[in-house]
Design a protein that fits this description.
alpha+beta, about 35% helix, about 35% strand
Length: about 130
């Protein structure tokens, strides 16, 4: 498995007024996580739309205790895209791209497109990429 990781700030996309009940992200067994996911839901949807606009036919974001997940189908597997929960500051985000199966070509394409989205969007500021 091969991974690519991006960390960036996007404070304008962090909705600190959102609630888990209002956003449909309530988790009985992980209430704090549900609250954080509510605050990042708008960004998860925007980011998926941006990836599609850049030619990546990703799935809609799905809620998970680790963040929001999308996938990009590949011939022999898929690329798992995890939009992580904010870091130590509200508005810090991470995106992890993982090669599941044999999707190295698609992972490379996805990594390039995510880097392009982050570079072109003035509301996002890259912190690190690996």
């Amino acid at each position: 498995m091969v991974d690519t990781f991006f960390r960036f700030t996007a404070p304008e996309f962090y909705d600190d007024r959102a609630t888990a009940r209002g956003a449909g992200t309530f988790m009985e067994d992980a209430r704090g996580t549900g609250e954080e996911l509510a605050k990042t839901k708008r960004f998860a949807r925007w980011f998926a739309a941006e990836m599609r606009d850049h030619g990546l036919p990703v799935s809609d974001p799905v809620i998970d205790e680790g963040g929001w997940m999308n996938d990009l189908a590949a011939k022999d597997g898929f690329v798992l895209i995890i939009l992580g929960l904010p870091g130590s500051r509200d508005g810090d985000f991470s995106v992890l791209l993982s090669d599941i199966g044999s999707s190295k070509d698609e992972l490379g394409l996805c990594s390039a497109k995510v880097a392009q989205i982050i570079a072109q969007e003035p509301r996002l500021e890259l912190i690190s990429a690996a």
